[in-house]
Amino acid sequence: MRSIWNGAISFGLVSIPIKLVNATENHSIHFRQIHLADGGRIRYRKVCELDEEEVSGGEIGKAYEDADGTMIPITDEDLAQLPLPTAKTIEIVAFVPADEIDPLQMDAAYYLSANGVPAAKPYTLLREALKRSNKVAVAKYALRGRERLGMLRVVDDVIAMHGLLWPDEIRAPEGVAPDSDVTVRDAELDLADALMDTLGEVDMDSLHDDYREAVEELIAAKASGEAVQPSESEDSGGGKVIDLIAALESSVRAAKKSRGEGEGEAVSEEDMADVHPIKKKATPRKTAPQKSSPKSTGGKKSTASTAKKTTQKKTTSKSTSSASSSKGTSSANSAKKQTSSGSRRTTKKKTAAPRKRASA
Question: Where in the chain does DSSP place strands (E)?
Answer without folding.
Answer: 3-11, 14-22, 62-65, 71-74, 89-97, 106-114, 135-143, 146-155, 158-164
